[in-house]
Design goal:
By secondary structure, this protein is mostly helical. It is built from 4 helices and no strands. The protein is elongated and about 50 Å long. It starts with a helix and ends in a 5-residue tail after the last helix.
Length: about 130
Amino acid sequence: MLSPGRRWALALVYLGLVHITSSFAPGPTGFIPLAGVDKLVHLCEFGALALVFWRPVRETAPPRHPELRVAAVLFLFVAVNGVLDEFHQSFVPGRHASWADAAADALGARAALFWLLHREKARVSGSSGI
């Protein structure tokens, strides 16, 4: 079991890694050879970002804040980071900013948060949530 401080540290390190990896130019043939796979990578990368921030944010939110409000704030946080990541990439030689990538980032966050909210609802109602 991780302490709340370690959960925050893990989430912040992952956030840093997301932004650091966008600082690298792709290789001569591109980073991902198959068309469309890059959107799946964005979806997973930012979905994971929402997942690693969920618990530390939920634990530090005031007790009267429902999960849906926490999820909305977290969605905005992850989506803004996706846009900032794309903006940052526009300054990296060999990279470019893409609204489609930012949309995939937001969709990944939304999917992860939807799953977390569904899981939380199932936990409260006593079902398996899978």
